[in-house]
Amino acid sequence: MIKSPSPTDSASKVVQVDLGDRSYPIFIGSAELSRVNLNTYIQGQKALIVTNDTIASLYLDLVLGSLDEKQVDVVVLPDGERFKNLDHLNWIFTKLIEKKHDRKTTLIALGGGVVGDMAGFAAASYQRGVPFIQIPTTLLAQVDSSVGGKTGVNHALGKNMLGAFHQPRAVVIDLNVLNTLPNKQFAAGMAEVIKYGLITDYDFLQWLETNAQKLLNRDENALAYAIEKSCIDKAMVVSADETEQGMRAILNLGHTFGHAIETFQEYTGFLHGEAVAIGMLMAMEVSVLAGHLVDQDVQRIRSLLEVFSLPSRPPDDMVSTDFTSLMYRDKKVLDGKLRLVLLRALGDAYVEVDSSESLLEKVLISACGS
Amino acid sequence: MIKSPSPTDSASKVVQVDLGDRSYPIFIGSAELSRVNLNTYIQGQKALIVTNDTIASLYLDLVLGSLDEKQVDVVVLPDGERFKNLDHLNWIFTKLIEKKHDRKTTLIALGGGVVGDMAGFAAASYQRGVPFIQIPTTLLAQVDSSVGGKTGVNHALGKNMLGAFHQPRAVVIDLNVLNTLPNKQFAAGMAEVIKYGLITDYDFLQWLETNAQKLLNRDENALAYAIEKSCIDKAMVVSADETEQGMRAILNLGHTFGHAIETFQEYTGFLHGEAVAIGMLMAMEVSVLAGHLVDQDVQRIRSLLEVFSLPSRPPDDMVSTDFTSLMYRDKKVLDGKLRLVLLRALGDAYVEVDSSESLLEKVLISACGS
């Protein structure tokens, strides 16, 4: 389905997500925003770019300049996960209606995961569904949230509680935009890159360990390879299980813990990727207690995460019961049972459907101190 | 696909909506709420009933009593189209999260079109999609909005602008609940019944003319037949074109005009069905100017609508430009062109894709006086 990349080839790449009539290409390269003709993926006479105030000043003109003569409107959202809610989603709807966008309009998400999730959900819901294009501008969005069609917003009581499956028409990943990405955000994206190694791809995990310093220095070839490999791994999982009836859930390694942290901090503390880094280590600790991993495995991944200065411990003010009460609101809870993504081995994740509550409790108490 | 009903047979009926793995039954009968086992259509251990303050006092206990031992929560919305918005949708999400409903929960819409649209859109969006059941309690919801999977909420700037296609698992139509329906609401539902005759079914239109007095008196056999026939006609159109790529649009006869009226009145004036009645007459006037119908056709339908005391003229304070500015926000507008549903003949609707703007303007000026 997907060609295997070579770690030293940095020319433009295309990864195809195979989903029948909802299939689409992911373009990856060092100047894709100049190279890819966006107009190919816009059918009507109107488009709406959704972006945020940080990204607008950097890349909005470049995207606007690349669009043919048509009506292009822009919604600039405030930058941050705490604005990913119904109120701000309504900004997009208001602009679409005010500017008389019809069912043939195309939304363009220009930004990180928050912008992509909101523009995607707006596209899924406006007039019961219009097309959209993803132009992810953070590493995290490039390797994770822009691929696979999950869209949504947060509710005050839980992350990503509202949303839709709605696949984009194309994803355009321009490596150059990472040049303006702050280190903290870059590291958060690396947490999701490392996730792919942990869940399905031990060879990639080893490659990441070997090339961690290169990646930290944002070596272009290394970065291109890591992003392409991540997209290939994600496309494979999504093609096999688009609406998460089964295996797609392994993409959520560490996320049940991570979402609890983010919700506890009301989306103003750790970044999503940082919270996921902490969560992956906690999920690995449960995997150790379940007899699948050994302590050295956890230590090895902790060291890899530390190269990127990612956090490894939950916030000091969180106690174990904060985790459990928030984790039971997770979307993977079914009939009151938590379904945790665990590792059978490094590079081999699965969803634990039998209750592992006592193991979880031990890990939470150990991690939180109470 | 669908068996043909006999006008004198009032026993329970089932109309099947054929949509592959999204197919579902519509149960129609005089005491379906007691007869149909709702539990068959609920898979998990939890359910949430969405209803409104009018219906809750009448039928909530009956539905609650029919559900097996499981966690059943209830959201009571204020009654009225003006509450069909994102703010009130959020009431449903909040309850779902607070009561820890997971992806196996089932939403039950117990109410009219507003409740059905909101519960349906909430079901489409909660955790990216959970099942739901429709129990429509108004004639309009029974013959129209509960069937076909269109769900959504209004935006301050336009009706049904936000939503999703999300099919219910079952529709339960209990004729007894119409006993408590006010005459004005009953008449509004009759407008949509008459619509089916106008768009696809001249025989049914003639039957409606013959039986109008019986229907006005809510004769049970006549009503059962009219509802079943409407559901069959709608199921046929929906099965052929689930997501309105083409012919499904004929179900919107009169709706582009009607939505303009409702939006102009901020959903506090005419009921939806009343606005549709006015709109159908206006669409027929355009059809006369287009050379398809004669004045007598329009007069004939005006007389039929008048049996039910339905309005036939737009609000006095609306001028023609109010219509045009609001109609161009309609979801059927494509590339700036209005696509009106017109009649080739009584019982034969089509979507006019060529511009009929000058004809429309004549009708609007004639109807509004300016």
Q: How does this model look, in words?
A:
Chains A, B: Belongs to the sugar phosphate cyclases superfamily. Dehydroquinate synthase family. The structure is a homodimer of 370-residue chains. In chain A, the strands form three sheets. Chain A has a seven-stranded mixed beta sheet with strand order 1-2-9-6-5-3-4, sandwiched between helices. Chain A has a two-stranded antiparallel ribbon with strand order 7-8. Chain A has 14 helices and eleven strands. The first copy, chain A, is α/β, with parallel strands linked by helices and 370 residues long. In chain A, α6 (183-200) packs antiparallel against α7 (202-210). Chain A is globular, with a radius of gyration of 20 Å. Chain A folds into two domains: 13-180, Rossmann fold; 183-368, Up-down Bundle (Dehydroquinate synthase-like, alpha domain). At the A-B interface, α3, β7 and β8 of A face α3, β7 and β8 of B.
Can you summarize this structure?
The structure is a homodimer of 370-residue chains. With 370 residues, the first copy, chain A, is α/β, with parallel strands linked by helices. Chain A is 45% helix and 18% strand.
